[in-house]
Design a protein that fits this description.
- By secondary structure, the protein is α+β, with helices and mostly antiparallel strands.
- The chain has three domains: 291 residues, no CATH class; 112 residues; 62 residues, Arc Repressor Mutant, subunit A.
- The chain has a nine-stranded mixed beta sheet.
- The longest helix has 20 residues.
- The chain is elongated and about 85 Å long.
Length: 483
Amino acid sequence: MTPGWELVIGLEVHCELKTATKLFCGCPNLFGDEPNSNVCPVCLGLPGSLPVLNQRAVELAMAVGTALNCEIRPSTFHRKNYFYPDQAKDYQISQYDEPLNANGYLDLPDGSSVRVERAHMEEDTGKTTHAGGSGRIHGADYSLVDYNRSGVPLVEIVSAPDIRSSLQAREYVAELRAVLVASGASDGKMEEGSMRVDANVSVRRSPEDPFGTRCEIKNLNSVRSVGRAIEYEAERQIRLIESGERVVQQTRHWDEDAGRTEALRSKEEAYDYRYFLEPDLVPLVPDAEWIRAVAESMGPMPAARRRQLVDLVVTTGEAPEARADQVATVVDLGLDHLVLAAVAAGVAPSLALARTANEAAADAEAAGRLDPDSYVALLSMEGSGQLTATQAKAVLVELLAAGGGDPAAVAKARGFEVMSEDSLVTAVADVVAANPDEWARFCAGDAAARKKLRGFFTGQIMQATKGKADGRAVSAELDRLAG
């Protein structure tokens, strides 16, 4: 940010719900099918068709509200009127002044909290493809509309304008995505459009000034794009104001390749949509028992799961900050159950976290399918010294490919065995003798110099022993020889 300015951001996140069918009809809710193959008179808005509310969509929407600490309230559906070809009936059924979820908040890993004003239900629109030219409607040769997505259930999550940096915006989107996946409401696949972000951006001179004129950046489909688009738009607005011009409230498009926002249209207000109550749907009034049942069906959210892993680190006397990145990676990928299973079986938390956050996380999809018993058995072998770290990593590759198996059998088939103490001592002595200058610096060096040279010697010894040496034993032997 240019010095002397404050950035004000509010985010609107559209999340497709993971239901079998659409919000008001029985058409399949599937991604990637042949265009216009999952449509019917209801989602196309043909005369005489009537919507019927999807109960499972309501339950998932309530799960989102619960996960975001919202009040779950009686709500109504409205018609949001506008003309655009992605909505065949020229209106969208949405919730307006009485949303299902309101007054919530989301705590971020950095300790900040962002208020959630509402998380309301609505139907998604179709997908328009502009052929020719730049791929935008201006200059296109023609446009194609796929209505498969039209009528898919959505929850739109509207934050308060509490976000003050592009980094915090990225953290909010990442954490929200993790919450939506953990709640079971969405698959969170931004690349498939399951989750899309609109960013409302404005700038002001100081926190005491009123909010500036905001512009809305539409349909950001990655965490990286959210950060880049906000940074560009903030600087654009600052340049306008500092040159004596004014910011015009408008909707803008983010061009990922060009790295800039471009004007789409003037920003609509609520009155532009001529909202009125949907006459074909009754009010939605979840009772206390239904709300409680939805809450009880949900597992722990990412923040609670991170705290659980951090508590494991604390019990070993290690500073939580030393493992913060590993904890975040494991929870983000949904692999914390592997860590918990290993620790419950007696594996050191540091080993369980490190192996899961690095080697298992490298193939997270396979790790998610991995038999936990096989994983625990492997880490137990490494922790007890039956396998070196290098050998354990090689065995893990085979377990991931097979979805499980007997790590002892895999290790035996590959001829893995730990070197005897005498063989290790000999191997270390040979490498030390072959590198006298490095060894002299190791013996005379401080902790930092020794750390660097320790890596050098360990690598040489691993190469000489074809990975059979145990890294911890090598380190201990180097220290013994150095005195």
